[in-house]
Amino acid sequence: MKLAGKIALVTGAGRGIGKGCAIELAKAGADLVLNERPGSPDVEITAEEIRSLGRKCEVVEANVFSREGCEELVATAIAKVSRIDILISNPAFSRRGSFLEYSPELFEQTILGTLTSGYHMSQLVSREMVKQGDGGKIVFISSVHGEMPISGSFAYGAAKAGLNHMMRSIAVELSEYGINVNAIEPGWIDTPGEHVAFSEETIEAEGRKLPFRRLGRSDEIGKAATFLSSPDADYVTGTVLPVDGLFRFRHCLPEKTPQPKDVQ
């Protein structure tokens, strides 16, 4: 229970990686404020799971793709729970497409939903942490796309690369206040969204091609976020932690060639 007495705000917490982070933080003793966009059918289910663990949990619906939505979220969270010790910043927007055909509007939406929203949330929450006067932990959910120039994902990759750099700069500036700022880079994670984008057969087949023979799980990202939010990571800041099962290096593995039979 290393997070006992702490209050964590998790954005995009209704399902997938955000839910995985929220559940693992609760298991470590934190109370939660969960955010999802207005009308989300998932966030109350996650909240009930957290309450069943014996933790307190508040839900605040707000659109974190806008400054106004982020301001509403932080103000409402502070009114409900009085302080925020941990922020898991998990907003993202991704649409694949050819660079030559990608529309300016879609590019701007990707940057807004993935990078700019992270700026809004971290700035507003860090201001509260500075006022509280006893440090804090900020964890951005980035992506291996921030390092890998994957075809069709140039906009999302650029946004995540920018997020990584912004995280390091924020970590430098907030170090004087004892606020740790880090990022996690998930690889290919088995989330509900992946089951919308791909068939079950494709997910199973592609998972077998990865070094660990499967996709990652949301709780594995949550465990990493819990570590970075805990006292165990008090001297860790400005760091990008890949949690990808070697997804970045999957093509670096030795080729398995058939061996000839012994000849008598």
TrEMBL record:
Organism of derivation: Thalassoglobus polymorphus
Coiled coil: none
Pfam families: adh_short_C2
The name this protein goes by in its record: Glucose 1-dehydrogenase 2
Keywords, in A-Z order: Oxidoreductase
Gene that specifies this protein: ycdF_1
CDD domains: SDR_c
PANTHER family membership: 3-OXOACYL-(ACYL-CARRIER-PROTEIN) REDUCTASE (PTHR42879)
Keyword Cytoplasm applies: no
EC numbers: 1.1.1.47
Alphabetized GO MF terms: glucose 1-dehydrogenase [NAD(P)+] activity
Record family assignment: Belongs to the short-chain dehydrogenases/reductases (SDR) family.
The protein's enzyme class: oxidoreductase
Gene Ontology biological process terms, A to Z: monocarboxylic acid metabolic process
